[in-house]
């Protein structure tokens, strides 16, 4: 049987594909393991999509070269890899070695390689799964790699991880296929000794799989055990245990390994949610109303949403459901002057503009000049003429706009991104505690700088896609201490309060800010605070 039949692409297989619960106890016991299936390559795009497609918001920064450059080809000259495993391996080497973004790299490589849909699905699965589970994979592989990983060439290490991922997490891939393909790649790129070692390690791992279970993990603390079991760095899990307690920290870890589902936001000027659902259903997509966002539609089984007439004609925008809450919390009225300080690629800008019925003005600012066009393109696709895209450091916006000139200011701040680990798993391995501290300093500076632009009686919304207290609650509390002219506002849309309560994200102690965790609705981890400038 061909591998394409073993690992079905998301569109065909729905929830099938990735760990249909473990033959093997080494795989994590999370919901992800039970139901996880990564989106088909090219399946979801736009805001922060972890899949490899390109569309609207996320549109390629384009500069990533094809995966053929990564890895060590015997010939020494780059060429397009032929199999999904070769392609995935090249991307893994490139992400680990050169710090490339997995989603951009994969997107570019898949475009270049022209794989079949099934093979593209397999390559996508291998890239995300291997990065996601690399610590757990290394923990078990360490038993069988006698010389340790440091002695291995990077591509051999990645090949072992990628193959171990298939053995331990992808039940639909026969062991012989995973091992034989790995050996073939090792022969092609290395020498007899390497392929023999790869064969030996993988076969030993397969024989010992019954021993690779959570109880066999030796860890010095509960946090370290969680970190090994769910594949995270110790320092991060320790922070989450401290901030949220052990149980919630484990749920965060498990949810971070889940595959995200797709979701779209309906443009009310072009369609009702029911009409959009009907159109998506006609395309064979499993679309349903979002339990979280009033304009949101979830798509559990989907194809390439960017390649639909509804997207091209501005009926919908790909956006995570948590992200959709932010503009709803801003709740701008038609005719207002609204400033979106960190706006690219324009997901929230366009939502604000839609909520304003295309009346008034949304100033959509971003630091990077090349991102301005993304905002313009999205606005134009959606028929929005009330957006003006500008380029500036948000810290300097007070040079452009008069103090107190805005009815509403949104600071969707750059952040550590720990709420979107499902989409960008390399975040786990690349961010450090020092990065969190540094980004918190920037957020503080930006919040300070843009708050003066809010008019008395106006609204300031601060949001991030992270779950770090120092970037979220502590940031807001610190700001309020220094700015008595602002106060938290609990006047949020009723539907959002209800959804947050249902999930346990807020309780009767709700003060005017909320932290949504990825396990609540299977959407991104997001923090939102609504502040009012006293009149
Ligand atoms: C979280 S993303 C914004 C996502 C966007 N709000 C959306 O919904 O599509 C943060 C953005 O902040 C921008 N950025 C980072 N530092 C900035 C600064 N000092 N001033 C303005 N923009 C900045 C980045 O280029 C990035 O596009």
Automatic annotation (TrEMBL):
According to its UniProt record, the EC number is: 2.1.1.176
Q: Which residues form a coiled coil?
A: none
Q: Which reaction does it catalyse?
A: cytidine(967) in 16S rRNA + S-adenosyl-L-methionine = 5-methylcytidine(967) in 16S rRNA + S-adenosyl-L-homocysteine + H(+)
- Residues that bind S-adenosyl-L-methionine, according to the entry? 342-348, 366, 393, 412
Q: Which residues form the active site?
A: 465
Using the UniProt record, give the first listed, main subcellular location: cytoplasm
Biased composition, class Low complexity, residue ranges: 19-42, 49-72
Alphabetical keyword list: Cytoplasm, Methyltransferase, RNA-binding, rRNA processing, S-adenosyl-L-methionine, Transferase
Give the residue ranges for region: Disordered: 1-83
Q: Which SUPFAM superfamilies match?
A: NusB-like, S-adenosyl-L-methionine-dependent methyltransferases
Top-level division of the source organism's lineage: Bacteria
Question: Which InterPro entries did the record assign?
Answer: MeTrfase_RsmB-F_NOP2_cat (IPR049560), MeTrfase_RsmB-F_NOP2_dom (IPR001678), NusB-like_sf (IPR035926), NusB_RsmB_TIM44 (IPR006027), RCMT (IPR023267), rRNA_ssu_MeTfrase_B (IPR004573), RsmB-like_ferredoxin (IPR054728), SAM-dependent_MTases_sf (IPR029063)
Domain SAM-dependent MTase RsmB/NOP-type per the UniProt entry, residue ranges: 252-534
Query: What GO cellular component entries does it have?
Result: cytoplasm
* Gene Ontology molecular function, alphabetical: RNA binding; rRNA methyltransferase activity
Spell out the subcellular localization from the entry: Cytoplasm
The main enzyme category here is transferase
Q: Provide the GO biological process annotations.
A: regulation of DNA-templated transcription
Q: Which family does it belong to?
A: Belongs to the class I-like SAM-binding methyltransferase superfamily. RsmB/NOP family.
What PANTHER family does the record tag this protein with? NOP2 YEAST -RELATED NOL1/NOP2/FMU SUN DOMAIN-CONTAINING (PTHR22807), RIBOSOMAL RNA SMALL SUBUNIT METHYLTRANSFERASE B-RELATED (PTHR22807:SF53)
Its job: Specifically methylates the cytosine at position 967 (m5C967) of 16S rRNA.
Name of protein: 16S rRNA (cytosine(967)-C(5))-methyltransferase
Q: Which organism is it from?
A: Paenibacillus algorifonticola
What lineage does the source organism belong to? Answer: Bacteria, Bacillati, Bacillota, Bacilli, Bacillales
